[in-house]
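sorry for the late reply, my laptop died twice this morning and i had to redo everyting from scratch. anyway the thing you sent over, i finally got around to it. pasting the sequence first so we're on the same page, its 114 residues, then the predicted structure underneath. double check i copied it right bc i was rushing
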Amino acid sequence: MLRPGNPMGKVLMATLIFEAITIGLAVPVMIMVSGVSAGLASAAGGAVALLALVAAGSMRKPRTGYPLGWATQVATLALSFLTIGMLIMGVMFAMLWVVCFILGKRLEAQRGMT
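ok and here's the structure:
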């Protein structure tokens, strides 16, 4: 978890919001390109997008926001079982999440916040 007031917390929140948008846009791809049923694609994509939005909304509470953010990364990668394109997107968002988290920890160490 990053400490409150760390500027990377806002970047992580924005990452989750953009991730939710991307997941929402992936639902039609799952249906049209990968042949996933509309119900399954909507349920899976909607659940993961909702998880991303809940995680973004709870980022101000580190005890809930960060674990939900990590769970969102895992869930996004799990969507690759429905369409291979989500593997690429999931890896990109997971890498962005990890890099931002590491940079946030470095900022805390540099500022003596630890």
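Helices lie at 8-32, 38-57, 62-78, 85-111.
thats about all i looked at so far, will dig more tmrw
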